[in-house]
Design brief:
By secondary structure, the protein is α/β, with parallel strands linked by helices. 36% of the residues lie in helices and 16% in strands. It has helices at 15-30, 50-64, 79-88, 100-106, 126-135, 177-187, 203-213, 243-248, 253-263, 275-281, 296-304, and strands at residues 2-5, 34-39, 73-74, 93-96, 139-142, 148-153, 157-162, 167-169, 190-196, 219-223, 226-227, 292-293. The longest helix has 16 residues, at 15-30. The structure holds glutamic acid. The site of glutamic acid has 8 residues, from strand 9.
């Protein structure tokens, strides 16, 4: 079986992406699994620089030594698989004509969480659907009957969420992330999913969908994000902490790896580590549960003064 890392080619990796990739690789290797890389480029129109970014992302993984065991796949080339999977659960799927704004208005989602769809279009009559089809292109949602689903996360422990009627195919025909990810993991023999903990909230949906598709749900490991000291998420502007920039600043890949290992409580301050050592030490239950706060400006300063040591934030 396999673990995997599944980046979206929207920008080059920053230190947070590299850290999640490292944990995914260590989790797979330390549990005797193979390791896969899957490119999540479902929405190619919104990823205009995908090819160049994928090349850079794969280059970074290679430089860090996070070798994969099967050819890299791209979701944009796997639509036939999603079409087939959808056809097996068509009795659960219905057309939804609500706009994003209407969904947001109908729900009072706390800031920063995904609005929960209240089921507005679940029981439309055939006549209403015919009328609405003239006005709007529908998306497809799946009727989850508000199932409550628990998953086990290797680091966070049990997590329970209520599954709403989430989108499986957008109105422009592009398959939704929550659908494709489940189809892909099952198809690729992935039984261990490691990713950022901003996606923990999605895992009950995905585990529920796996059951509908008749495939086992994977085990999950959600890694706390890397944040700036003010709690802001690292963003495109934080490309200053990309492997390429750090190398240009004279910081070696091993130093970066060691700094990541330290942030994961896998190595003390001054130790320079290699991947074999980290595989031996890795234990998901002992990963830090809080975000890693690190200052992009400190890292950026490496560009100015390459002779300074790699940033220490505590
Ligand atoms: N493609 C997602 C991302 O780049 C990760 C999805 C997943 O691992 O399930 O954040």
């Amino acid at each position: 079986m396999f673990g995997r890392f599944a980046p979206t080619p929207s920008s080059d990796f920053h230190i947070g992406n590299l850290r999640t990739a490292l944990v995914a690789w260590l989790a797979a290797r330390s549990s005797g699994r193979g390791f896969l890389v899957r490119i999540e480029d479902l929405d190619l129109l919104r990823l205009p620089d995908a090819d160049a970014i994928i090349a850079d992302q794969l280059g970074d993984l290679n430089d860090l030594g996070l070798v994969h065991d099967q050819p890299v796949v791209r979701q944009s080339e796997r639509t036939h698989l999603y079409e087939h999977a959808l056809s097996t659960i068509s009795d659960l799927v219905y057309e939804c004509f609500c706009s994003r704004k209407e969904v947001a208005q109908a729900t009072r989602a706390p800031h920063g969480t995904t609005p929960r769809y209240p089921g507005t279009c679940r029981d439309l009559s055939p006549a209403e659907k015919r009328r609405l089809r003239h006005e709007r292109q529908p998306c497809l949602r799946i009727n989850a009957a508000s199932a409550s689903v628990s998953v086990t996360d290797l680091a966070c422990g049990p997590y329970t969420g209520q599954v709403d009627d989430f989108v499986v195919r957008r109105s422009d025909g592009v398959f939704a992330y929550n659908f494709a990810v489940v189809v892909d993991d099952a198809d690729q023999g992935v039984d261990q999913v490691v990713r950022g903990d901003d996606l923990l909230e999605s895992s009950p949906r995905q585990a529920w969908l796996a059951a509908q598709l008749g495939v086992p749900a994977p085990v999950y490991l959600h890694v706390p994000l890397v944040l700036a000291p003010d709690g802001a998420r690292l963003a495109k502007r934080d490309q200053t902490i990309s492997l390429t920039r750090l190398r240009q600043a004279g910081i070696t890949t091993q130093q970066v790896l060691s700094r990541l290992a330290r942030s994961l409580s896998l190595a003390p301050d001054s130790e320079l580590v290699d991947l074999d050592t980290l595989v031996e030490r890795f234990d998901p239950a002992r990963l830090p549960r809080d975000p890693w706060l690190t200052d992009p400006l400190l890292w950026a300063a490496q560009d100015i003064n390459p002779n300074t040591d790699i940033p220490q934030d505590e």
